[in-house]
Amino acid sequence: xxxxxxxxxxxxxxxxxxxxxxxxxxxxxxxxxxxxxxxxxxxxxxxxxxxxxxxxxxxxxxxxxxxxxxxxxxxxxxxxxxxxxxxxxxxxxxxxxxxxxxxxxxxxxxxxxxxxxxxxxxxxxxxxxxxxxxxxxxxxxxxxxxxxxxxxxxxxxxxxxxxxxxxxxxxxxxxxxxxxxxxxxxxxxxxxxxxxxxxxxxxxxxxxxxxxxxxxxxxxxx
Length: 222
What we know:
Distance between the termini: 28 Å
CATH architecture of the largest domain: 3-Layer(aba) Sandwich
CATH topology of the largest domain: Rossmann fold
Number of strands: 14
Strand order of the largest sheet: 2-1-3-6-7
Number of helices: 8
Helix content: 40-55%
Order of helices and strands: EHEHEEEHEHEHEEEEHEHHEE
């Protein structure tokens, strides 16, 4: 389990590194916003612990970069415990907020709680390249931006996801999807739905990388 820690106080940083490594976490430590941005731009971590006040900026700025890359768990660590800082952190997507000085057991408990929450959420998320499907919420994202699908487009996408790596014939797809009124979808309509779905989730719908055509057989989701 990898954890990134941004903390400019050397004593606290060393202490956090020692505590977390004793809990079998692999820790990467940074002391400035500049250093943090360089590390985070090159590598992803499973959890981020960010100090709020740094010599060259704020942990808020680093949090924005993290969240722009994906929905990763973030815990803010700060000496300030006022309502404004707490609200700002949560508005940026922070998952928890711990004030200094902190107790070791509380810190570890908060970390494990956040990681468990994300683990449960990941069970309902399917990720393929830039595509993310949250089946619990019936939401679809491309590069972390929500893409609005019609009911039929979403149903068609689920058919591909449930049969990933398998060739689906047009007949099989027609058997699996029905329109909202319960009428059978015809072959021409299926072609339209596949095109519309590709237009929304593919980088280039003319040269699809996700839903590929298998000539003479059907389609396959890679």
